[in-house]
Write a structure and sequence with these properties.
Blueprint lengths: L8 H12 L8 E7 L18 H4 L1 H14 E5 L4 E2 L8 H4 L3 E4 L4 E4 L18 H17 L5 E2 L7 H9 L1 H10 L1 H26 L6 E3 L6 E3 L2 E5 L8 H7 L1 H10 L2 E7 L7 H4 L7 E5 L13 H9 L3 E5 L5 H15 L4 E4 L5 H14 L3
Parallel strand pairs: 1-13, 3-6, 9-10, 10-11, 11-12, 12-13
Antiparallel strand pairs: 1-2, 4-5, 7-8
Helix pairs in contact: 5-8, 6-7, 6-8, 8-10
Length: 369
Amino acid sequence: MNMQFKSDWAETRDRFSAWWAHKKADRPLLSFWTYRECSLENPLIVEPFADVSERYLYTEKMLAHQFERLCTQKPMAEAYPALSLDLGAGSLALYLGSEPDFHSDTLWFLPAMDSLPSDGNIPFNADSRWFKQHIEMFEMGKEIAASTDALLCIPDLVEHVDVLASLRGTTELFHDFYEYPDLVKAANKSLNMHYKTIYDAFNKYCMEEDTGWNAFTIFSIYGPGRTGKVQCDVSAMISPDMFREFALEPLREQCKWLDNSLFHLDGPECICHVPALMEIEELNAIQWTHGHSNPPSGEECWDELYSMVRDADKGLWIALFDYDPEVAIQKADRLVRKFGAKGLYFLLPNMTEQESDALLLKAEREWKC
């Protein structure tokens, strides 16, 4: 098996390099897929999952289903063939004592701490069951993917405050904010330390040996060195002052450590924290999630947010897959004309070959940075 799912890797790396550095490229980043005229032969046999847990824990079955997509759909522009062995958003909590609660569409983490440790230090044991099992999954995944150009992606570990919410329970953590603020801050420091150790443990299986690049499991990001998404979804329920007290410095430390960082801004309730986020010099870009029952990301009502990000000279990741291709391209065109092409990244819906050709021609002619 020596399968190549993508041919334009060099151009993709050039555009991602410019986007992370917020420099000019020939056009914005674009990520979308088309259906292959002739499907490739899947190197693995696709079998149904016996139960919900197999969707997260049965490495070969998981990768067989993902290879099926790569064999029937073609990554276009800056899309790339990715393989994910994610254990849910926030698997760092699993390695620190949480147990998983499997669902068909997500995975939750059960609280594991009745209180914060007296010194705030949350211990990590490299022999913990879930960490060892997850590493073993990556060892197998690396072997399976070795003779393809598909990228094994860094899992969605999540970090500091959001992991504390999993370990303690959100309500209990909010009590800790008021009653034990120093312990919360100490716990954040220990979680950042564990995050770095664990990220590097997985990166041994994810980093491309010939380029030093790696990819992250969600949001289709790829970059030189350590690339990752950072977040604080708990921020939707706390004030700007509390965000600055408990989340800003751990995020700053994390962005300094990562070579390429994308903040996941999860819904309108989090917009009040954008001024603080823009103070993190090392943060490269913002990924905007508009949230349920809100207008999609391409609508003008979000332009004030986009302006704040652009004024701070950060990259801007915008999902336009809620629209059909024609409308998505119109929304992208409006955004390019208003904000300029430099620093924009559009995630677009699947397209036909004809729609793909038209989009790339338009981008080449009209969306120059």
